[in-house]
Amino acid sequence: MSFIKNKLKRIYCSNCLDIMLSEKAITELNDENKKINQRNQHLLLTNQIQKFNSRSENIMYIEDTKNSYFIITVENEYNLRGLLSSINLYGYILEQYKEYPSQVMRLNTDIIYDSSYNCIQGIHIIDFVGESNKGYGSKIMNSLFDYIRPLNANYITGELSAVDEVDLNNKSLRDHFYQKFGFEITGKKIRLELKS
């Protein structure tokens, strides 16, 4: 661009000021165009979230990345007595220009009650699957902690997958994941005391 500018200056010296003003106007228009495009992309993703929010799951966390959103939803299930029987958390990636989100993580739990069904004793992890080493699991686990805090559960338990036992790297990553949240691993079982 500077080569053309210099050439034009030599040819049209009397119009040098006009050329410089035009160049400044073009730069300002390009900057404004970028801002408008960013706002349009944000509006498209916001519209997708509104469509997504009409599902039976409740959105509890949204993280805005460059061209997508990472969304965590929660779905409660109830037994015949009307008591909470399970809490399921799902992680989705909602990408720009895609109508439907991609599920990248799922955490299914059961609620454990005392013998009279008056008080929640604990949360038992049934299944926790999804893409690893992207931070999704940590965000879902933190969301679970936030969600169950008002339930005053005493502990979280679970059983580790035999699938991860085959590959030592997977086993190491899995164990590290649970241990960083304070879970104790005993054989194929995990346990985290929530009340001291």
Structure notes:
With 196 residues, the chain is α+β, with helices and mostly antiparallel strands. It has an 8-stranded mixed sheet. It has helices at 2-11, 16-52, 136-148, 163-166, 168-180; strands at 58-64, 68-78, 84-95, 102-113, 120-130, 155-159, 184-186, 189-193. It has 5 helices and 8 strands, in the order ααβββββαβααββ. Helix content is 39%, strand content 34%.
* Number of DSSP-assigned strands: 8
Low-confidence stretches: none
Helical/strand content category: alpha+beta
The rounded distance between the terminal residues' Cα atoms is 68 Å
- Which sequence of strands runs across the widest sheet? 1-2-3-4-5-6-8-7
The radius of gyration is 27 Å
pLDDT averaged residue by residue: 83
Quaternary assembly: single chain
**What pattern of helices and strands is seen along the backbone?**
HHEEEEEHEHHEE
Strand content: 25-35%
Number of helices: 5
Briefly say what this structure is.
The chain is α+β, with helices and mostly antiparallel strands and 196 residues long.
